[in-house]
Amino acid sequence: MATPRTVAFHTLGCKLNFSETSSIRRMFEEGGYQAVDFSDGADIYIINTCSVTDFADRKCRYEVRRAMKYAPEAKVVVIGCYAQLKPKEIAEIPGVDLVLGAKEKFNILSYIDDISHTPGKGWIKAGEINEVNTFIGSYSIGDRTRSFLKVQDGCDYKCSFCTIPQARGKSRSDTIENVIKNATEIADSGIKEIVLTGINLGDFGNGTEIIEGLKPQKEGLFIDLIRELDKVEGIERIRISSIEPNLLTDEIISFVAESKRFLPHFHIPLQSGSDNILKAMRRRYKRSLYASRIRKIRELMPHASIGVDVIVGFPGETEEAFMDTFDFLHEIEVSYFHVFTYSERNNTWAAGMDNPVDMGIRKERNKRLRILSEKKRNLFYQNHSGDVRTILVEDKLEDGAYTGYTDNYIKVRVPFAEAKPNQLIEAKLNYDSAEGITYAVV
Ligand code: SF4
Fold first, then answer.
1. What would the pLDDT profile of 116-173 be if each residue is shown by its tens digit?
2. Burial of residue 150 (number of CB atoms within 10 Å: 0-12, 13-18, 19+)
3. Candidates 50, 171, 199, 267: which one to mutate for ligand 1, based on the most atoms within 8 Å of Cβ?
């Protein structure tokens, strides 16, 4: 029997990319390839890129060099958001053989055998992003304890700082039927926790934004999806990843509060606590709406974890506007933040805006919010010390203990010898404030 050709992957960026890499890996395996580690010297390397960070180019070059080091004769293929945005730049990176755009990446197998080696000349197959109108469902399996299940892709919003719509195209979603099929496959593989993933997840089926007095007009929306998923036997825990505040309806919050499978954990982008900056960002809500979402969650789920994305240093963010954000985040009952320092992106409205903030000030504001986030997280952990909660056991540490997360997203150290990865255990939490660690205790 001939030795199968080998393929290795590296994924940069978000949960969506991880779910897509995993699905592409399964496509290769079904096509007779053997997936190996990156350092094993594969015949084909697939690098799935991200365009969100400042270092997209550097990171991509670094991974191409690594692939060339392990296997100088390998074919190197670059896919992902950065590949859609800058295909020409990537094709010129020494060692890159093929660059595939958002639409073409799922047809990767049909291009592989046609690659020829012309040094310094990668082959580009990347169409216009506005032509991308198909949805390919994906999910990750085998990489970590949880599975990322992609149910939606692309975004129709036009936030002034964001390049994602240019990299991922129009908002489009899977069918509820197909999501259920994928979720069932994940559950059948023994995975206990699914993270529902999308670029604008709440827009599933094209969501209806919260407008006072108006009811959703359509079927097949995010609320319908989670109602159906909740009925699937075998799935123990479902986490909703980031959801826009203007799409997080009372109905969704009430449903999660009642559900046994959907976890009390929300991640809701705020981006700024200043209404003027929100307007300049072209976000679709004011801070009062955001505050109302937090109040509703707290009313029904006092124990829920609430994460916040926030951007500092957006053009025109005065010290006063920053303090609006700081004070707002200080006041509202959220559990932690992801703080991003604004940086100019080509082809965005914000890049041309007046009054850019000095980079030193951006970094300093980032630090101030990170310190506040740490305090909030510790307080959240402290407030739940003594609770009994379910923990999904994940990685083993060097000292033999395990880490895991509770349903309400408290990171826990599990020092039980009999614990096993992917096991759900119920334990009492004990927060050690000196160490900043929550322990599971019997
Ligand atoms: S909602 Fe805004 S920030 Fe999020 S992907 Fe869409 S355009 Fe980008």
1. 756 567 888 888 888 888 888 899 987 778 999 999 999 999 999 999 999 889 999 9
2. buried
3. 199
CA angle 412, 414, 418 (to 5 degrees): 155
Q: Which residues sit opposite 430 in a β-bridge?
A: 439
Q: Whose CA is nearest to atom 4 of ligand 1?
A: 200
pLDDT of residue 214: 54
The CATH number given to whatever domain includes residue 327 is 3.30.750.200
Cβ of residue 138 lying under 6 Å from some atom of ligand 1: no
Q: What is the pLDDT of residue 243?
A: 97
CA distance 183 to 260: 16
Quote the domain boundaries for residue 187. 134-263
pLDDT, tens digit (0-9, with 9 covering 90-100), for 179-189: 999 999 999 99
What is the rounded distance in angstroms from the CA atom of residue 276 to the CA atom of residue 291?
16
- Element (DSSP H or E) covering residue 265: strand 265-271
Atom from ligand 1 closest to the CA of residue 156: 6
Total domains, the chain: 4
Which residues of the chain, if any, have pLDDT below 70? 1-2, 54, 117-120, 208, 211-219
Same domain, residue pair 60 and 140: no
Place of tokens 């496959």: 185
Same domain flag for 256 and 144:
yes
Atom of ligand 1 nearest to the CA of 155: 6
State pTM to two decimals: 0.91
Residue 416 Cβ contacting ligand 1 at under 6 Å: no
Q: Residue 144: inside a domain, yes or no?
A: yes
